[in-house]
Amino acid sequence: MPSKAVPLGPTAQAGRSHRWPAVVAWGLWALTLLTLPVVNWLDQRLRQVGLSALAILEPAAFPLVAAALTAATVGAVLASRRRRHPVGWLLLAVGLSAQFSNLASDYVHYGVMVRPGGLPGAGYLTGFYNSGTVVMVTCIGFVVLLTPTGSLPTPRWRWWARIQVAATVLLVVAAALSPHPLEPEDPTYEGPLAAPAALSDLLAVAGVAGVVTLLGGLLAAAGSLVVRFRRARGLERQQLRWLALAAAVSAVALLAAVAVAVLGAPLGVVLIAAGISVALLPLATGAAILRYRLYDLDRVISRTLAYGLLTVLLGLGYAVVVLGLGRLLGRDSSLIVAAATLAVAAAFQPARRRIQAGVDRRFNRRRHDAAHTIAAFSAHLRDEIDLATLTGELLTVVDQTMQPTQTSLWLRHNEPIPTGGAAARQLDR
Prior knowledge:
Layout lengths: L9 H39 L13 H20 L4 H29 L7 H4 L5 H16 L11 H19 L23 H32 L3 H28 L4 H24 L6 H33 L4 H30 L1 H17 L5 H16 L27
Helix pairs in contact: 1-2, 1-3, 2-3, 2-9, 3-5, 5-6, 5-7, 6-7, 7-8, 8-9, 10-11, 11-12, 12-13
């Protein structure tokens, strides 16, 4: 007898529905990654004909490429694990649109300026190859606006979101209908979709209005994070603190890149600093949404400050010892280096403990107070022999340091517990 197909049960159907978003997300990530060799191949063709200025994968473009790949990777992870959260898909769109813009730029310039008519659809793409950048900026604005909850801060932001979408469509249409889409590379070229010359001024005004609206949208989205932080409590506040930390570190790295560039540092150092600054925000966004070790943030900040100050102080101490002994023993003496190294090694642990205590006292007060409470209880534990008193004090210490919603202590005894205290106590808030 022929076999009869058995319909899938609800569990199997649910499993398939859960797998499909992950497959789509990682497929888009792979598509983003596959654009790199194609762009590199087209770059080589442009350099061979003397159009190196139009090549995309130059050293100066390293920060943007790193940001695009980081955003796509974080977006794939988020979309595969939190398929209903829009930020993961938006980050994927950021990476994919950035790489599409690079690929379309090379494709259009090679197909129009090097081999006219040799690449299919190159002429029609002349008005759209900058659209990837427009979509990327719009998606970045929505990522900031929807992080970390996946919804707008308040329903009143809906009209602003609609304006951003309308400005994006306006910019894309204005670029597609531009009479000279290849300016300044080829100001005489007219695309096949070019609008009549009478509409050129109107398209220019529409393009400027769209750019201003999108840039204003980025500023408004950044302001929405401030509004969220002031209203947030608990877990959401911890998520926003991760984003604030990443934004601060990114700003410092970007300023460092500008400073070393002004001072004439090698290009590689500048690009690494810039790449770090642009890649941190997608990583912090992913960590905040996935809620990965959010409550270690205070520890991360305190350790970073402590070891940063320790490095500066020990470096200054090393320099002082070397300069001071150098005048006495001569700059070429090996005793100077040995003495400075021994001095720094001897001062490392005491200095670290003092600096860490100072940082905790100033920036991580809860941990500092908890450490003092535990130390005081440990000292009192050596002198106290009354079990009932120790029970109450132990639960009090746990409540003050850990701050749980409920604490219980159960003791098993062969003899009754001495009067004067309870063997167990419940603390409910």
